[in-house]
Amino acid sequence: MGILNGKTAVVTGSTSGIGLACARAFASAGANVVINGMGAPDDIERERAAIEREFAIKAIYSPADMTKPREITWLVAYTEDTFGSVDILVNNAGIQHVAPIEEFAPEKWDAIIAINLSAAFHAIRAAVPGMKKRGWGRIITTASAHSLVASPFKSAYVAAKHGIAGLTKTVALELARSKITCNCISPGYVWTPLVEKQIPNTMAARRMHRDEVISDVLLAAQPTKEFVTVEQVASLALFLCSDDAAQITGANLSMDGGWTAA
Ligand code: NAD
Fold first, then answer.
1. For a 10 Å CB count at each end of the chain, is N or C smaller?
2. Integer Cα distance of 158 and 155 in angstroms
3. Ligand 1 atom closest to Cα of 227?
């Protein structure tokens, strides 16, 4: 018996990286999962089928686009129709764009605010009535160290992630008596294929060894000089779904190798 048997988890942006690790962690604890995000249909289907097989739960895929409020509402309705509930909602889909403020393309700003901030609002708004009706819920958003501190050239991302910290606190207060918790997790740099792929080019461009690129470029702000892993983030998300975490709400939980302590 897993701690999430009979529960359903929706994880946005779960076709790769942190979201996929969260979906797998919830499935390993017995939850049915809804996978969402972009990617090649064959790859997504392979991953979905593997999760079902490995953990003996039901996994379905929704292609809902997190820039479109109607598709987000539809994602929640589709899950409730299929499984009867959305017990756990993880707002994880996210994108990044890096440019000086005066050159920051307005359409990039709009896309980042839509996916990294507004999508969480629309999903929470749609999922809360069902959670209230059933008297249990867990809302978790993948924020970032950038919900607490800034870096240059990331105006939209930093604004969106700071917005998530505020949205999390507000929703937590509104739902405090409903047995629904709302928290965000703020990772520093997480080891994902995206990060790994940057290393060879950076080694060549800066004439550095692999270790130097990792410690002096990628992990310049992270005192441990180690990446967070997707499994570590997923493990914290799973803990937040446990009964032991029932009194953690409105929290912004850092997992950043000491970045925001500095
Ligand atoms: P990733 O690129 O591996 O995953 C992002 C996911 O979002 C993918 O599944 C992608 O398909 C999905 N997505 C993108 N646009 C979408 C859209 N319009 N509709 C639906 N899904 C969409 O990246 P990741 O590193 O796993 O990032 C996941 C979250 O973690 C993001 O919110 C990101 O800001 C946050 N985060 C990442 C890091 C890091 O270092 N990797 C650090 C802090 C926070």
1. N
2. 5
3. 40
Q: Which residues are catalytic?
A: 157
To test the ligand 1 pocket, which listed residue (16, 140, 224) has its Cβ within 8 A of the most ligand atoms? 16
The DSSP secondary structure of 74-116, one letter per residue, reads HHHHHHHHHHS---EEEE---------GGG--HHHHHHHHIII
Q: Cα separation of 247 and 262, whole Å?
A: 28
Which atom of ligand 1 is nearest the CA belonging to 157? 34
Domains parsed from the chain with CATH numbers: 8-189+229-257 (3.40.50.720), 191-227 (no CATH)
Per-residue confidence (pLDDT) for residue 195, from 0 to 100: 83
**Rounded to whole angstroms, how far apart are CA atoms 88 and 54?**
20
Sign of CA dihedral 63, 172, 156, 226: negative
Structure tokens at 49: 């089928």
- Measured distance CA(138)–CA(245) in Å, rounded: 10
Per-residue pLDDT of 124-157, as tens digits, reads 999 999 999 999 999 999 999 999 999 999 999 9
Nearest CA to ligand 1 atom 39: 190
Per-residue exposure over 75-92, b if at least 16 CB sit within 10 Å of its own CB, e if not:
bbebbbeebebbbbbbbb
Indicate the top mutation candidate among 36, 92, 230 to test ligand 1's pocket, ranked by most ligand atoms within 8 A of CB. 92
Q: Tens digits of per-residue pLDDT, 199-217? A: 888 899 889 999 999 999 8
**Predicted local distance difference test score (pLDDT) of residue 198:** 81
What residues of the chain score a pLDDT lower than 70? Answer: none
The label of the residue with tokens 């190798």 reads 257
